[in-house]
Write a structure and sequence with these properties.
581 residues; Enzyme I, Chain A, domain 2; 8-stranded mixed beta sheet; binds magnesium ion; alpha/beta; 8-stranded parallel beta barrel; binds phosphoenolpyruvate; 16 strands; TIM Barrel; 22 helices; Glucose Oxidase, domain 1
Length: 581
């Protein structure tokens, strides 16, 4: 009698949307610890030659990976492979390996020991960036050992039937070996939202869940598996009830996906003909493809601080320039709003580049524009890069974390300085470049009328505005239930900010997550929000919400909402309203 396998459910981190079911292909861990052998004195030169040959082969392998990623996903993804070349050529690790071989260690064991030392030194650092680098070191040393020993590699490229790959961790080299035709999804033990697997899976638009801790130890090749990349759930050997639930979920998801795709080229326009701007938020230039594919008609927030992650040197003016030029040209004739760096807060730990001491309250500390004032050279470099790029396509500048007029004026003094410098050097830029500010600190929200007089536009950053207004840490799960966009204090603030902007004759945008949830679209439209900037995957959902509403009804609803004193009652009104989308 066939064995009935037990269903098991794993919760991980959702990194690439969609639902898929199929059979597991378990990518087994390779590279068990090599065995130590003492090399006699007279053979040590030969051992060094073995190492040298393997290094050359490994470099060639990584270059092939680079070319493959570059060809399929573009240079920004391919840079991941460059990090591995840097690791391969790391002088400290190389010196350590060579001196061990000279002492009599066999080459593969010396590589294993030297890389192990570095990996161990990263163990105590609870920083995602260092964790990712530690995977890279593991991957490079694994390849190097394989090339020294010339051992056969198990590869995803060998997969010749529809499969869902489960692995402890997928390296960039593993991931590009995907034959899109056959690999339908990923699930890995390691990784977070910014892991390489996540980045590449999103590029391929394959459902993926990472951070599943010990999944790879619990499954076997051939097991049945469902991956829910929307919710971050993986189910192994689902029972018949789960299968039929997921079949229904898949059908709903697929039908919605298809329906949303049809909206791509349609305008974001209400039933009574009011057009709004629907933009996308991005973290890097490659995401412009995804934004355009999903029907965004501009970039409303380019979070440029992501340029500072995963690197050892501060980006140069030239890099800023090239990056923004490329992004804005790709989006042209649509506009690109570039936000100056918002480093600090929860993005502080990623910053090994600046000497910022431990802060007990990083969200209230040296963050964003405050950090730029402390490091004027970094700020000026970025401003010059943005200005230079503005000569090539439509770009606007936006400052984060402005709390009052003095800060806005001080930021503008830097901008003036950057402009003066370029003029002197006879370098072109858009003399009429528009300047806006995020309204994301309660003090700025309360004085939007004052700030608006010296701005060309504002964009509401609800992620921070809600955190600071309600005193709820946006990344603390224990207080997540208090983080409520429908709190009457937030509702009143939003209305005030939008009115203040309009009274000053400027447009009001929103680029916080609230803009990307269709549940809030009617209220925001009713308040007169001019522009919604949302993650690319939400663009068509917000477009659908806008296209299903009459502006006159949205206005009525938002007026009613303003009279309600309790968030729960607002929620009830929204769920009962026929406008709920
Ligand atoms: C916000 O605070 O709403 C926002 C868009 O900025 P970030 O999430 O980058 O802080
Ligand atoms: Mg913010």
């Amino acid at each position: 009698m066939a064995e009935i396998k037990q269903e098991s459910i794993y919760q991980g981190v959702a990194v690439s949307g969609g639902i898929v079911s199929g059979k597991v292909f378990l990518l087994a861990e390779q590279g068990n610890a090599p065995i130590y052998k003492e090399i006699p004195q007279d053979l040590r030169k030969k051992e060094l030659a073995r190492l040298k040959k393997a290094i050359a082969q490994t470099r060639a392998d990584i270059k092939t990976t680079y070319l493959k990623i570059n060809e399929r996903l573009g240079e920004n993804y391919a840079k991941i492979a460059n990090v591995q070349i840097l690791i391969l050529d790391d002088p400290v690790m190389r010196k350590d390996i060579i001196s061990m071989i000279e002492e009599g260690f066999n080459a593969e064991y010396a590589v294993f020991k030297a890389s192990g030392k570095i990996i161990k030194s990263f163990d105590s650092i609870s920083d995602e960036y260092f964790r990712e680098r530690s995977f890279d070191i593991q991957d490079v040393s694994k390849r190097l050992i394989e090339n020294i020993c010339q051992s056969a590699k198990q590869s995803l490229a060998a997969i010749d039937r529809d499969s869902i790959v489960v692995a402890h961790n997928l390296t960039p080299a593993d991931t590009v070996a995907i034959r899109e035709k056959f690999i339908k999804g990923f699930a890995t033990d390691m990784g977070g939202k910014t892991s390489h697997t996540a980045i590449i899976a999103q590029g391929f638009e394959i459902p993926a869940v990472v951070g599943l801790k010990n999944l790879s130890c619990a499954v076997h090749s051939g097991d049945d598996i469902i991956i829910d990349g929307n919710k971050g759930i993986v189910i192994i050997n689902p029972n018949s009830e789960t299968i039929s639930t997921y079949e229904k979920e898949f059908n709903v998801w697929f039908a919605e996906h298809k329906e949303l795709e049809k909206l791509k080229d349609l305008p974001a326009q209400t039933l009574d003909g009011v057009k709004i701007k629907l933009f996308a938020n991005i973290d890097n230039p490659d995401e412009t493809e995804y934004a355009l594919k999903n029907g965004a008609s501009g970039i409303g927030l380019y979070r440029t601080e992501f340029m500072y992650f995963n690197r050892v040197q501060i980006p140069t003016e030239e890099e800023h320039f090239e990056n923004y030029k490329k992004t804005a040209q790709r989006m042209s004739p649509f506009e690109t709003i570039i936000r100056t760096i918002d480093l600090g807060g929860d993005k502080l730990s990623k910053l090994g580049l600046l000497d910022i001491g431990a802060e007990s309250n990083p969200f209230m500390g040296l963050r964003a524009i405050r950090l730029c004032f402390k490091y004027p050279d970094i700020f000026l470099q970025q401003l010059r890069g943005i200005l230079r790029a503005s000569a090539f396509a439509k770009i606007k500048i936006m400052y984060p974390m402005i709390s009052g007029l003095q800060e806005l004026r001080q930021a503008n003094i830097f901008l003036q300085k950057a402009k003066d410098g370029l003029r002197k050097e006879k370098i072109d830029f858009d003399e009429n470049i528009e300047v806006g500010a995020m309204i994301e600190i309660p003090s700025a929200a309360i004085i939007t009328d004052i700030l608006a007089k010296e701005l060309d536009f504002i964009s509401i950053g609800t992620n921070d505005l809600i955190q600071y207004t309600l005193a709820v840490d946006r990344v603390n799960e224990d207080v997540a239930d208090l983080y409520d966009p429908l709190h009457p204090a937030i509702i009143r603030l939003l209305k005030k900010i939008i009115d203040d902007a309009h009274n000053a004759g400027i447009k009001a945008a929103m680029c916080g997550e609230m803009a990307g949830d269709p549940k809030y679209t009617p209220i925001l439209l009713g308040f007169g929000l001019d522009e919604f900037s949302v993650s690319s995957s939400q663009v068509s959902k917000i477009k659908r919400a806008v296209r299903n509403i009459k502006m006159s009804d949205a206005k009525k609803l938002s007026q009613e909402v303003l009279k309600i004193s309790d968030a729960k009652d607002i929620e009830k009104l929204l769920s009962k309203s026929s406008l709920r989308v």
